[in-house]
Amino acid sequence: PRPILLTRHGESKDNVRGRIGGDTAVSDRGEVYGKKLANFVEKRLKSERAASIWTSTLQRTILTASPIVGFPKIQWRALDEINAGVCDGMTYEEIKKNMPEEYEARKKDKLRYRYPRGESYLDVIQRLEPVIIELERQRAPVVVISHQAVLRALYAYFADRPLREIPHIEVPLHTIIEIQMGVTGVQEKRYKLMD
Ligand code: G3H
User: Fold this and answer.
1) Is residue 161 flagged as an active site residue?
2) What ipTM goes with this model?
3) Beta strands 175-182 and 73-75: pairing type?
């Protein structure tokens, strides 16, 4: 059985400031995570010549992948974070204060709520379909470096979790979720590389 390794990008400058969306670089801590991840991947996939590293098109995932050498890297727009539309770059506090109806609507139905001029979780789930097809087709291990909302959806697919849970699944920073698909079903391991 071949593993799929799922991880968020290392902490970004916007994570530190509590801002959603955007396309900032990683923080110093995020950079440290990239190095730890590279170490882990190089050990874990040492003899796996055909393994590949998939990122989104956003800086924070590309920078997190950059210390990993020896494997091909592929950028997928479909792995980009949920598009927060008019709320891109805001903090949750700002959304609550300036757009209370939007804040409440999202709280009521986070799965279906679509940011104005942006996406809903259902939209994200739909755009991930080609990624999932390609992941299923791969025979070699894949490391997916993406974002919280996207990884919630991918994880739910492999772990067979119901749709309604997806927006609430915990996908912590600086942690690798390893999925093994074998004949007896799916097995999962988690590696927390740092806080
Ligand atoms: O920036 C977006 C977050 O990663 C998604 O978090 O859907 O819980 O607001 P949320």
Assistant:
1) no
2) 0.92
3) unpaired
